[in-house]
Amino acid sequence: MNNLHGIIFAYESDSRLRELTQHRNSSSIPYGGRYRIIDFMLSNMVNAGVTDVGLIVHASYQSMLDHIGSGKDWDLSRKHGGLRILPPFGYADGKHQATYGGRMDALAGVYSYIQKIRQDYVVLAGGDMAVNLPLADIYDFHLKSGADITAVCTHKPKGDPRGCIYFNIGASGRVSDVSVRPQLAMGCESLDVFVMSKSLLLSLVEHCAAHNIFSLSEGVLQPMSSTLRIVPYVYDGFVARVQSVAGYYERSMDLLDPAIRADLFNPSRPIRTKDQSNPSTYYSPNSRSVNSLIADGCVIEGEVENSILFRGVYVAKGAKVSNCILMQSTSIKEDVVLKYAITDKNVTVEPGRMLMGHSTYPIAVAKNATV
Amino acid sequence: MKKECVAMLLAGGQGSRLYALTSHVAKPAVPFGGKYRIIDFPLSNCVNSGIDTVGVLTQYRPLELNSYIGNGQPWDLDRSDGGVHILPPYMREGEQGTWYKGTANAIYQNIGFVDLYDPDYVVILSGDHIYKMDFADMVALHKKTGAACTISVLEVTLEEATRFGIMNADENDQIYEFEEKPAHPKSNLASMGIYVFTWSKLRQYLIDDEADPNSSNDFGKNIIPNMLGAGEKLMAYRFKGYWKDVGTIQSLWDANMDLLTSDFSSGFNLYDIEWPIFARSPTRPPHFTGKDAVVTHSLVTGGCEIYGTVEDSVLFHSVTVEEGAVVKGSILMPNTVVKAGATVEYAIVAEGAVIGENAKVGAVPEGDSTDRGIAVVASGVEVGAGAVVAPKAMITANVSAEKEEK
Question: Do A258 and B305 touch (CB under 8 A)?
Answer without folding.
Answer: yes
